[in-house]
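FORM 7B: Structural annotation worksheet

SECTION A. Query
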Amino acid sequence: MKPPPQNTPAAELRCEVCGLMPEPPKARLTLANVAVMLPIELLVHALVVETHLPYVAKVVVLALTATVLVIWVAEPSAARILLRWLHAPALRHRRQLASAPSLWRARTLLRDQPGSLQRITAALARLDTNILSIHVHPVADGVLDEFVLSVPGEVGERELLAALRDGGGAGSHVWPTTALAMADGQTRALSLAARIAATPDELPLAVAELLQARIVPPSDAGAEGPDDGTRLKIPTAWHGPITFSRPGEPFTPAESARAHRLAELAEILAYRPEDSRPS
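SECTION B. Predicted structure
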């Protein structure tokens, strides 16, 4: 059985591809080399000066001996003995990045009863998780709550799912996300509606952007997909039905309604006379 990897500077900073350590700061590398080289230089000078060699021979011996000792002894010793000190700035930066909060999206199904939201927020709070936004979607079995969470860097998917489960959530899913998730669905829908108003043919791309989904090719749209809510079909008069897919992330009723409203807008504009469209 292999022992667990030690939490050393080399293990934390060594490149996984080339296996090299990052270049330490020049000032620290210079001080480390001086600290290791100075005792060696003094010892070599003391030994050579006491000999009865000619002056030129002493200079040559000193130069060669010091060079060899520096290359083969001093620099490797400094890199090994003072490793943590040499790379302290990079280690601090790495640990700050590792502990920095990350953004996650989460969805969980709750019972539509008093106290459900309080229990789920209390479970997330125990992980020092900050809820940045929340959307509640009524569904047949209760309410589907969608969160954008700011999570400590050491908290991952497993801990988040456990917290959602402990808070009474069912069918929970979590995904890493970016700051773009803070733009709410209504704002994105209005922006894309303006885009469709200018060019109705942009409907498929606009809906795909709104839902963060992919457009299913017509040749594959007729194939039976899994009945898990990850496929959405919207009808159009001139494109025919357009199918969108988002594996692993079911569409909410609100997202479906927004997509259908955009399709209605595009259809209305597509059949308006050219001279009456917005310029």
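SECTION C. Observations
The CA atoms of residues 25 and 89 lie 8 Å apart. The mean pLDDT is 76.

SECTION D. Sign-off
Analyst initials: ____
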